[in-house]
């Protein structure tokens, strides 16, 4: 959904992280009239293969930022009961995964303009998803109208922008490039890995 370069951080009325999820888009916009809409991103991690990996999905070739990689997410709908509901809905629509819990907010809100010049505040969250088979990577089901492939990438692969092997549709590839939709998308992913590592060290 990030269609334009990010703007300066601007001013967002302070809201505790725990309260962001319970707010509706309308409530947030009422408190922050400089914005036109709210968007969310979901960082889905799995250690099923032994190493921490994140789900990345590849944008369809007919969409904006064709072929680039991002995490599941998108704009809040007016019908969404809360931003929490928006996270769950977008996650299900774009990956087929069912939200189990929101672990934490990752970083500050990203602020950008869409192609139609709407000012957006995007919040990114680490989430847990339902995993029917323990120890197995969650089964991803993409919406082909929006995304054409997916991978589970390590922190190093995200940092380097290269993955050993390819996505399910690219069997036989030795390596593939990972070009993100924006530098901010890459930064939030790497921050997600860092926060997980910090939390593990505190245990």
TrEMBL record:
Coiled coil: none annotated. InterPro entries: NUDIX_hydrolase-like_dom_sf (IPR015797), NUDIX_hydrolase_dom (IPR000086). Residues 35-175 form the Nudix hydrolase domain. CDD domains: NUDIX_Hydrolase (cd02883). Keywords: Hydrolase. One of its GO terms (molecular function) is hydrolase activity. Gene3D superfamilies: Nucleoside Triphosphate Pyrophosphohydrolase. PANTHER family: ADP-RIBOSE PYROPHOSPHATASE, DIHYDRONEOPTERIN TRIPHOSPHATE DIPHOSPHATASE. This is NUDIX hydrolase domain-like protein. It comes from Chaetomium strumarium.
